[in-house]
Amino acid sequence: TGRCLTISPDYIKYADDEVLCIPQIEDLEGIENAEAIASVDGVDIGFLGPADLALSMGVERGHPDHEAALQRFRKGCARAGKPSGIPVANGLDAKRRIEEGFQFIDLGNDLRFLEITAKENFLEVKDLL
């Protein structure tokens, strides 16, 4: 709507309509409770932290147990009637996760964009160094 909610005197009146509540799940306890978490009144989307999940599981990303946990999370959110979200590294990963049923895709972030841009700029000048 273009309202600046942090300045608006009626912030409270519009906040629930303007702000999403997106808890991020990063461990197996959260995975096993995905449906209950997504069912909480006010939660709009369930979101995964796949790298931290893998770390908490003691496995690499992409390990079969890790992938199974991601799908359990997605299904738990679906049972609660809420979209599930996941960050991805590129368009191909986005397509795969969308085909699996994830509905909220984080295709990029500031760190990734900075990394890509720095790499591109370095490659342009590396022969001069």
How does this structure look, described?
The chain is an alpha/beta fold and 129 residues long. Helix content is 53%, strand content 9%. It is built from seven helices and four strands. The protein has helices at residues 11-18, 28-32, 34-39, 50-57, 64-79, 91-100, 110-125, and strands spanning 24-25, 46-48, 84-87, 104-106. The chain has a four-stranded parallel beta sheet with strand order 1-2-3-4. The longest helix has 16 residues, at 64-79. The termini are far apart. The mean pLDDT is 90.
Brief write-up:
With 129 residues, the protein is an alpha/beta fold. Helices cover 53% and strands 9% of the residues.
Spell out the key features of this protein.
9% strand; 129 residues; alpha/beta; globular; 7 helices; four-stranded parallel beta sheet; single chain
Q: Could you outline the blueprint of secondary structure elements for this entry?
A:
Elements: H1 11-18, E1 24-25, H2 28-32, H3 34-39, E2 46-48, H4 50-57, H5 64-79, E3 84-87, H6 91-100, E4 104-106, H7 110-125
Number of strands: 4
Q: Percent of residues in beta strands?
A: 5-15%
Helix content: 40-55%
State the major sheet.
4 strands, parallel
CA-based shape: globular
Spans where pLDDT lies below 50 across 5 or more residues? none
- The whole-angstrom Rg is 18 Å
